[in-house]
Amino acid sequence: MSNISSASEFLLLPFSDTRELQLLHFGLFLGIYLAALLGNGLILTAVTCNHRLHTPMYFFLLNLALLDLGTITATVPKAMANSLWDTRAVYYEGCAAQVFILFFLLGAEYSLLTVMAYDRYVAICKPLHYGSLLGSRACAQMAAAAWGSGFVYAVLHTAHTFSLPLCQGNAVDQFFCEIPQILKLSCSHAYLREVGLLVFSLSLTYGCFVFIVLSYVQIFRAVLRMPSEQARHKAFSTCLPHLAMVSLFLSSGMFGYLKPPSVSSPSMDLLVSFLYSVVPPAMNPLIYSMKNQELKNAGRKLLA
User: Fold this and answer.
1) What is the helix (H) or strand (E) element at residue 60, kind and residue range?
2) Can you tell me the distance from the alpha carbon of 176 to that of 194, in angstroms, rounded to the nearest whole number?
């Protein structure tokens, strides 16, 4: 089989060969993308303009909204263009850039969700030390560390993936450039380096997951010991949205990368990738604002 590591383009998976369904997919993606832009844009504007929201929790939420906007912009506009113009091609450099941007943003988002768990832990379990442990400088450093970890994560994976020789053609079974699908195109003896890197990354992911779980064990223990029902309700209202976001992000992402080959199929891969790359950025603003009265009030003032 020929080595096409110097191929000039990849062919992405089409949603349909029927023109009407392609336009339907375009409309669906357009609606989701506009909803994500509106929701995350409102959070960015509300947190920036409302001085009452200039707290560590909302600072991290602002960073999360930025990451979500970047994540959905990295995949959906290209998918919309492919459906609208009935094309599949993406340049090799464009594919590498998409992989880098997506891994950068997803890696940073997971790190930020871990930081947000720590923020909730300190706020509920160590409220007297909240100001000293999560001052402006500490928050900026933790946010920078989250963004920086995503950058390193993306550099490693992108460099390794696109240094592999490709022997299986250039058709990617996904609507965007995704590392597992590109690895399927690599020569069988050459992909082990990237698999090893994925195992290392999963180990770090598991470490963050354990930290989040332990943080919430302590949080729930502290909340259940609160004598006031109103205090318990307020604590849960700030924790449950974050827990919902973590659950959505991790369940879809881990299933996408760890599902057994026996349940793998183009339609299943497409659905799972849609769930972890498109649904969280669109749903996070709704999830976080449902039980957050301060954010609701700030949003109403903006729309009034």
Assistant:
1) helix 56-85
2) 19
Count CB neighbours of 165 within 10 A: 14
Question: Residue 166, SS3?
Answer: strand
What phi-psi label fits residue 248: left (phi over 0), alpha (psi between -120 and 50 degrees) or beta?
alpha
Instruction: State how far the Cα of 219 lies from the Cα of 238, in Å rounded to an integer.
Output: 11
Q: Give 30-54 pLDDT, tens digit per residue.
A: 999 999 999 999 999 989 988 888 9
pLDDT at res. 291? 67
Which pLDDT does position 194 carry in this prediction? 60
Q: At what angle do helices 19-49 and 293-303 cross, to 10 degrees?
A: 100
Burial class of residue 267, CB neighbours in 10 A (0-12, 13-18, 19+): exposed
Q: What would the DSSP string read from start to end of 71-120?
A: HHHHHHHHHHHHHHHT--EEEHHHHHHHHHHHHHHHHHHHHHHHHHHHHH
The pLDDT > 90 percentage for the chain reads 36
Sign of dihedral through CA atoms 188, 189, 191, 196?
positive
Q: Say which residue the tokens 């339907």 belong to.
A: 24
68: nearest Cα among 283, 271, 299, 289: 283
